[in-house]
Amino acid sequence: MDIERRQLAWEVVRLRYWQHLVNEGLKEGKIPKVPVHVAIGNEAIAVAICNMMQPEDELALSHRNMAYNLARRGEFGPVYREYLMEPTGVAGGKLASMNLTQPELGIVYSSSILGNNVPVACGLALGKQTLDEPGIVIALMGDGSIEEGSFYEGLVFAKTHGLRLLMIIENNDHSMSSTVAQRRCPISVGDMCAAVEVPFRQMRGNNVWKYLDNVQDARRTVHEGGPMCIEVFVEALTNHSGPTPFGPSDPKNLSLDNGLIVEQSPNDPVYVVEQSIPTSAMAEMTDRVFAEKSVEETP
Ligand SMILES: Cc1ncc(C[n+]2csc(CCOP(=O)(O)OP(=O)(O)O)c2C)c(N)n1
Ligand SMILES: [Mg+2]
Q1: CA 18 to CA 258: how far, in whole Å?
Q2: What span, in angstroms and rounded, lies between the C-alpha atoms of 152 and 283?
Q3: How far is the CA of 233 from the centre of ligand 2 (A)?
Q4: CA nearest to 35, candidates 238, 185, 199
Q5: What domains are defined for the chain?
């Protein structure tokens, strides 16, 4: 296995472990002050985007920003302490979770208001264009966020001005506790994009290596030709927010004691990694993350 392939696998495994640690903290009631949205299941796309980004690129995130903040940071403690709102957190304990940014790492905006990051990302991309600055802007949102008018307006605005904007929809089929079928008619994002001639593609299967190839390709498209949109299908392997399980009546049993993998299926990015690399390499990575627990100052 070459170094880059191994590194991506490692980042997915490590990110899963860190999110499990946050979930364990939530289960034990150790993060009492703010709502926290764990993104177990979103690791492949998060690691791919974070590796695709160039230093001049900017990321505008939503309430479910954990995987991106951890993956860009590359360390657990300072992000976890931010959730605890401690002064040694990455934002001095002032931003906590839903609005967490790390501008020094390209995470310039995060919003808990659905669809709100789209016009902001358009503004950032327009600024880059006007000031002749390099790089692209990436806006992340969920299948609930695209129900906001700002999504469509953002598509139109970005296309009209040829903005270097990549829109990524993490479709986990959930907005809080409702599935798409329970709450609304289907939305064909492909048709919406076609209507305004914005290139569109879908990604499935949680293969971090393929995802990186695809998003690198998308970055080139955006850089040369203006906006593009990708809908990536992810599985909601955790509850909407707070701990999983939320209590004794919750059938989901997420625990580090059961290992890193939640589902033995392509819904689970870590399972996909396990199926794709030598058994010895996976065992080594798993041992490595669990060994790190003992040296981690939190939780
Ligand atoms: C404008 C607006 N309406 C409603 C909410 C309440 N709300 C918070 S998260 C959420 C679900 C979001 O679903 P989605 O965008 O698919 O993201 P996911 O949590 O599934 O990753 C809702 C409805 C909000 N934050 N903002
Ligand atoms: Mg959703």
Answers
A1: 15
A2: 45
A3: 10
A4: 238
A5: 3-295 (3.40.50.970)
SS (H, E, C) 106-130: CEEEECCCCCCHHHHHHHHHHHHHH
Structure tokens at 142: 């969920």
CA distances in angstroms from 186 to 12, 75, 83, 196, 234, listed in the order given: 31, 38, 35, 19, 17
> Look-up: residue for tokens 């296309």?
159
User: What is the model's pLDDT at position 248?
Assistant: 93
Is ligand 1 within 6 A of the CB of residue 112?
yes
pLDDT number for residue 293: 66
65 CA → ligand 2 middle, Å: 12
Using the mean position of ligand 2's atoms as its centre, give its distance from the Cα of residue 114 in Å. 11
Per-10-residue mean pLDDT of the chain, 299 residues long, equals: 93 98 97 96 98 98 98 97 97 98 98 98 98 98 98 98 98 97 98 98 98 98 97 97 96 94 97 98 96 60
**Which residue is closest in CA terms to ligand 1's atom 3?**
114
The pair of three-digit structure tokens given for residue 211, joined into one six-digit string: 């995802």
pLDDT for position 297? 52
The residue whose CB lies within 8 Å of the most ligand 1 atoms, and thus the one to mutate among 150, 170, 176, is 176
